[in-house]
Amino acid sequence: MRSYQGKVLGLCTSLLNNASEAEDAAQEIFVKAYQALGSFHGDSKFSTWLYRIAANHCKDLLRKRSRQKTESLDALIERSGDEVQNLWEPSFDPRNSAGAAELVKKLLDSLSPDEMLILTLREVQGLSYQEISETLKCSLDAVKSRLRRARETLQEKSRHFLQAGTSK
Amino acid sequence: MDHSILKDQLFALYDGELDPASRRDVEAHLAGCRECRESYDRWAMTAKAIFPAPKPATSEFFVRTVMNRIHELESPRPVRRWDLSLRWLVPAIGMAFALFLAIMPASQTMSMDNFLFQEMSGHLSWVYSNRSPNNDETLQFIMGETQ
Q1: This prediction's pTM
Q2: Taking burial as the number of CB atoms within 10 A of a residue's CB, which of A53, B19, B85, B97 is the most buried?
Q3: Which CATH number fits domain A1-69: 3.40.30.10, 3.40.50.2000, 1.10.1740.10, 3.40.50.300?
């Protein structure tokens, strides 16, 4: 567990954007993995199998969360002022600004759980196309097209985000 | 180069997923195409702003918590006395209810034939013959029923 703790917790944190929720989710994932150990036959790498459990668990949590009503992206942009513009500054790190971190969280929350998952696996966890296809159990072509669609959606939303921020 | 196909290749270049020959082709194209270069830079900038490098987070407390939960799952649950009695009570209640349902209709309901023979045995001739009762007989039947 010690070898995979960082990766699983990292994936949960990136996907759920909430430290305590991520820790609860990671605990649940390891317990689920322990209970399902009998179904692991070594067809794929252990880390891929564990990632699949983690991805499915987080996707369920994201689906539940997306059904709850939250503040709209536009309302948050209205409230956040200049921080939207700062996000695209080359030297800016959103982790150092609570407001910007909240904006990023909101932007990511506006994506579908599937888009969020594939982008996180690639951009944050740094999985290769092959590893993503094994984790999500889909073809390489499906990974490429899903990743492209998710990136285009994110760019579209962030463009709207940036325009709304600069027009104030 | 077709720009819609190239878009996939730009993402693949960004992800480091192109073979050396394709990589050379795409980089050569990027050097001469402002639109594609801007598209590539736009994604690189978006990704950097939205997906900062994750902080490694590991703790021994986390490991202990998960291990405790697993030990709880593994240890057999103590059997309480009321668990044992409930184990027999539920099927016993079910059996009693089924028996009740089986006996109930026989004692509470009566077929039409039984009713005719019990209640109208003296008047069956009206039913099985063509003779209709006269007024006195009808009156006597009604009075007899209501008394």
Answers
A1: 0.65
A2: A53
A3: 1.10.1740.10
